[in-house]
Design brief:
The complex is a heterodimer of chains A (118) and B (242).
Chain A lengths: L1 H20 L6 H16 L4 H12 L6 H5 L5 H6 L1 H33 L3
Chain B lengths: L1 H12 L2 H21 L8 H15 L4 H13 L1 H7 L1 H6 L1 H6 L1 H25 L4 H7 L6 H11 L3 H25 L5 H23 L1 H32 L1
Helix pairs in contact in B: 2-3, 2-4, 8-9, 8-12, 8-13, 9-11, 10-11, 10-13, 11-12, 12-13
Classes of the chains: A mainly alpha (118), B mainly alpha (242).
């Protein structure tokens, strides 16, 4: 487990170094995720301790957003002034995005299946 | 006695321990309510935990800064957790390979829809420029959205709130939208949820199935990348035209 945590932090560190070194607009952890994925593909398997640690972290992913969410208390006055555009935009855009993404992917999958019937 | 209690409070409130423990405690209470209600989307644990914590902090007159002294340790784990998403994704490697093009197309459509519709709706209803800048990357995960907005002159902390709000809305609404569209393929459900509602949506997708969760994690990472590229580009284009 300690080795797995160390590995995750090292991949994140490598990601941060690449992001800063090349001046990329992409955050370090996302590059770290791509690097770890590439490493797993090359290694052809994920070690069990890494699977357990990843499961523990990802299993409580929503907890990790709570501190940022509590930041809403700093912006209550702006939210009070502009609540209508903000609320309508968040709800409308989020639900629309879910629908568009699902419809496009379903259509593309169906097309791919028609081309290569299995 | 009250004085003594006040002394203890002042002492504890000055250490990170109190608000770290409180964050974990409140979240677990919210989560157990959520679990007992059979994971009903309306009882989203992030929404319940955030509302409870804000009420507690306002009631005790605590500033967000002193709260974050403790909560930062939880916040920090977002980085390693994002990296860890590579593991469930790797478990879906074969399925991923077979659907590379549909996933790419869906992500491009979804990322563009998220960015454009958020800004257009907010603008049409009269939001100011700072709010528009901060709401645009709302579907990207927190560290990504905050990083981009900081560079482009919005308010990173306001963006964090928009991102978390988006995640909660997506986690609550995804089931209804996807059921309405009769989407049954777990990979499609996962990609749609992760594109629109990042990590909070992904946590929700893992409750639907392991497969939906893994694809949601993938979509979250890729939409983060796409938003990091598309948002500065769209902003530059918009400034040329307007």
């Amino acid at each position: 487990m300690l080795a797995a945590i160390t590995a995750l932090l090292l991949f994140q560190l490598a990601g941060e170094a690449i992001a800063i070194g090349f001046g990329l607009p992409v955050p370090g952890p996302v590059i770290g995720m791509a690097l770890l994925f590439a490493a797993l593909v090359l290694r052809r398997s994920a070690p069990a301790p890494l699977r357990d640690t990843a499961q523990a972290l990802v299993g409580h992913l929503s907890l990790l957003f709570v501190p940022a969410g509590v930041g809403v208390m700093v912006h209550l006055s702006r939210l009070a002034d502009e609540w209508l555009p903000i609320v309508v935009s968040l709800i409308g855009s989020t639900l629309l995005t879910i629908a568009v993404t699902a419809i496009v992917m379903r259509a593309l999958l169906a097309r791919a299946q028609r081309r290569s019937p299995r | 006695m009250t004085n003594r209690l006040a002394d203890i409070w002042v002492y504890l409130a000055a250490t990170p321990l109190l608000f770290l423990a409180l964050t974990l405690l409140v979240y677990q209470l919210a989560y157990s309510v959520y679990r007992r209600a059979g994971f009903h989307p309306l009882l989203n644990p992030v929404a319940v935990a955030v509302a409870t914590l804000v009420a507690l902090l306002k009631f005790s007159g605590t500033s967000y800064e002193s709260y974050f002294e403790g909560a930062q340790f939880v916040h920090f784990l977002l980085g390693p957790a994002t990296v860890a998403l590579a593991v469930p994704l790797y478990a879906q490697f074969d399925k991923l390979k077979s659907a590379l093009l549909p996933i790419g197309g869906a992500l491009l459509a979804g990322a563009t829809t998220a960015l454009v519709s958020a800004v257009v709706i907010a603008w049409a209803l009269g939001a100011g420029e700072v709010t528009l800048l901060s709401i645009a990357p709302k579907s990207a995960t927190t560290p990504i959205a905050m990083g981009i907005v900081e560079r482009l002159g919005g308010l990173p902390s306001l963006t964090a709130v928009m991102v978390v709000g988006t995640g909660i809305i997506g986690a609550i609404g995804a089931k209804y939208v996807l059921d309405l569209l009769r989407v049954t393929d777990q990979a499609v459900r996962g990609i749609a949820i992760g594109t629109a509602a990042h990590g909070i949506g992904t946590a929700r997708a893992f409750q639907e199935s392991e497969e939906a969760g893994a694809f949601s994690g993938l979509a979250m990472g890729l939409n983060g990348l796409l938003t990091a590229v598309l948002f500065p580009l769209a902003l530059w284009l918009a400034r040329q035209v307007l």
